[in-house]
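Researcher: Next sequence.
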Amino acid sequence: MAEDIAGTGPVYALGLMSGTSLDGIDAALIRTDGEQVYEFGPWLTAPYEANLRDALRRLVEGGRDGVDEVEKALTEAHAEAAAALIAEAGYGAGKIHVVGFHGHTIWHDPSRRVTNQIGDGALLSRRLAIDVVNDFRAADVAAGGQGAPLAPLYHWALAQTANNAIALPLAVLNLGGVANVTWIGTDKNLCAFDTGPGCALIDDWLLARSAAPFDRDGALARRGSVDEAALASLLHHPYFAAPPPKSLDRNAFDSASLAPLSDADGAATLTAFTAQAVALGLDLCPEKASHLLVTGGGRHNPSLLAALRERTGIAVEPVETLGWRGDALEAEAFAFLAVRSLNGAPLSLPETTGVRAPLSGGVLHRAG
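Model: Next structure:
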């Protein structure tokens, strides 16, 4: 369960998130004390310019040339997104207490105590003239935790003050490139972990087959049929039987075995793979959830949501059901975590990352 923190009162914090879907930067403003949210400010998404997206993809796929140049370009892009949001909010940077800067994950292997999110926090703090907290995962991984997921404490905080209460236990599913779930029990306890692939395999399939960046509205998957043998092969992976907490890299799975399938059948099979992995993950939680609340870009895919309903057997709703902002939620989470970091409060717990004891983290870069 989340712990109370001793710190300052509510402050404005700006969160920046660049996820495994490689589509762009989410930026969001909230007012928080790191325990609850008092105000939701504006948010925006800044799509990546094509060259930067391609450079990030090369790094994610294992390339190591030009990391410093890509990191600088990535940081400058985040500075532009943050500046645009501050301008939209209509007040000066001096009103913002801290920026939570996730950076972009190019490698994540907690079994070897390695995680790497590129992004220059010192440069960003100079560009914005605001204090910046980044490098949120490293301390947890160094202490033996999974370093992911980190949003569960934010999900927990939101669930405590939800206007439209949903019966516990419930699960919050983030469908980005990788899928992760936060389970909140009837006694407010937590369980969190990566369930498996989110949208990354589907996106990569579309990109390779048709040069489309994603399966818009799940249209291609809807035209296809699931190849059950291929699906069974994908699910025959030791990750799915491993107990939580657990996490994985974007490239932990691949679709090479689906090469003989048609474009539509491959999309349908990969969509079913994501949904069945979520169903297997929910089976590992202490109790069956009453609802699965979906956030992240994948909630815009009707075929994927339909597959989730079919394969989990529980109610599946977008997080907007509770008045949350599904496209801004992860950016909000890192604003929230930045304030917790300043207060020395835990960012991860044994129930969320497997770390031995509640642990704070993040690196502070002072403006100027």
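Model: The two ends are 37 Å apart (CA to CA). DSSP finds twelve helices and 13 strands in the chain.
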